[in-house]
Amino acid sequence: MTTRFLPAPGAPRRLAAAQLANSVGDGAYYVCSALFFTRFVGLSPAQIGLGLTAAWAVGSLAGVPLGALADRRGPHGTSVLLALATAVSVASFLFVRSFGAFLSAVVLYAVSQCGLAAARQALLSGLVAPRERTGLLAHLQSTLNAGLALGAALGGLALSAGTERAYLVVFALDAAGFLVCAAVLLTLPAVAPAPERPAGEPRLAVLRDRPYALVTLLNAVLLLRMPLLSLAVPLWIAERTQAPGWLVSALFVLNTLAVMLFQVRLARPVTDLDSAGRALRLSGLVMAASCAVFAVSALPRAGWAAAALLVAGAALQADAEMRQSAGSWQIGFALAPAGRTGQYQGFFGTGVPVARTLGPLLLTTLLLPWGIPGWLLLGGLLLAASYAMGPAARWAESARTPVPAADAA
Q: What integer best gives the mean pLDDT of the chain?
């Protein structure tokens, strides 16, 4: 029973502990940050949206060079330093009292987070055997959801208190979580830096790897499902269905619990590119079915019937999310050349900020005005992208330049 919920002892379990440490604080931060900056700093929602969009755009660009830095200098020390930088950026929120200070703080936060994600993936790659990486990432995703849920509950206490001091405690908690994360990462074994790049190879080789760029683009399309439960479905429930408003929270809890309980199980069969392709194709079919169920929830019917359809759609969406995550993790790692994991994972990870930045605009434009046809179009788009990932991954694998023996070692 323990191994079902915890990764193996040693480095895998320490990586999970580091994930838990920072995700608890992040969960509280996500719940409270927007209200703090509007109520106590005096920023408008438009200023917050502009600042976050700019920050994640800069962060996505910084992920590749910071991942390459982890390759050259070693992912162990780089990940520790980036965890400390993230702690500093969160602590700086305690002193934000203007839009300029807010923009500087969130840019530092996004850059540190994107760099930390790439460095940790390179560290994991150096500490864990290839066939075990997707399973460990599933454990880390489950741990992340558990930490976010606990943090959101703590953030709810701050919201109930409603005082400036309560919000500042949340920021301090998040900063402390990243300090603990850095301390845990420091206890992990060191991973040797990559050898010097061969003569003639560009410093950021991933930027010229067109097959890998296609895989990254398709993954970004699949990640458009990220803003569904946080933005699109709540607006859909409020404007298009007869379901009760409290269902929004219930669907979020359903997704969180599903990932906590079943992500590891669904990721277990994914061990190579072929199994990753199968997982992605199945995820596309399930996601298309989810979109169809969400769509028909708007047809005239009693509130309880609409609620039942929304719960079914959310359950299908959670299943598709877990299969898509497992397949994408495997592909992202398998196609990264030895010694270049940091920069390749930094590039592959740009799909997350892209989905966070463009997803809300695309989904609200597609789903709310278009209604049922918009949902069906979204389902078709995600299905097509999931089926295209397999051929794109095979093209990327066949186009890879053989790694010199020194690099492989």
A: 88
Q: What ranges do the domains of the chain cover?
A: 9-191, 205-400
3-state secondary structure of 337: coil
Are 396 and 211 in contact by the 8 Å Cβ rule? The answer is yes
Domains 9-191 and 205-400 share a fold: yes
| Pair of tokens at residue 208 | 């010229």
pLDDT digits (tens, 9 = 90+) for 366-378: 898 899 999 999 9
Rounded distance between C-alpha atoms, residue 319 and residue 326, angstroms: 11
For 205-400, which CATH class? mainly alpha
Q: Find out whether 113 and 59 touch, Cβ atoms under 8 Å.
A: yes
Instruction: Report helix, strand or coil for 243.
Output: coil
Report which of 25, 203, 38 is spatially closest to residue 109, judged by C-alpha positions: 25
Which two tokens mark 224?
A: 């458009």
CATH number for 9-191 (one of 2.60.40.10, 3.40.50.300, 1.20.1250.20, 1.10.150.450): it is 1.20.1250.20
Distance between CA atoms of residues 351 and 324, nearest Å: 13
Amino acid at 258: A
- What angle separates helix 130-161 from helix 99-127, to the nearest 10 degrees? 150
Q: What is the mean pLDDT of residues 193-216?
A: 77
**165-171: long-range pairs with CB below 8 Å, 24+:** 167/32, 167/35, 167/36, 167/40, 168/94, 170/25, 170/28, 170/29, 170/31, 170/32, 170/36, 171/29, 171/36, 171/90, 171/91, 171/93, 171/94
* Burial call 173-211: b when 16+ CB within 10 Å, e when fewer: bbbbbbbbbbebbeebeebebbeebeeeeeebbbeebeb
Give dist(CA 178, CA 252) in Å, integer. 25
**pLDDT digits over 233-290, tens only?**
888 988 888 888 788 778 888 888 898 889 999 999 998 999 999 999 999 999 999 9
CB atoms within 10 A of CB 105: 21
Tokens linked to 380: 């078709």
Helices assigned H by DSSP within 297-350: 303-334, 341-348
Output the CA torsion 356→91→76→208 (10° steps).
Answer: 30
Helix axes 99-127, 11-39, angle to 10 degrees: 170
Q: Dump pLDDT digits (tens) for 128-165.
A: 888 888 889 889 988 988 888 888 888 888 888 889 99
Taking alpha carbons only, the member of 344, 14, 60 closest to residue 194 is 344
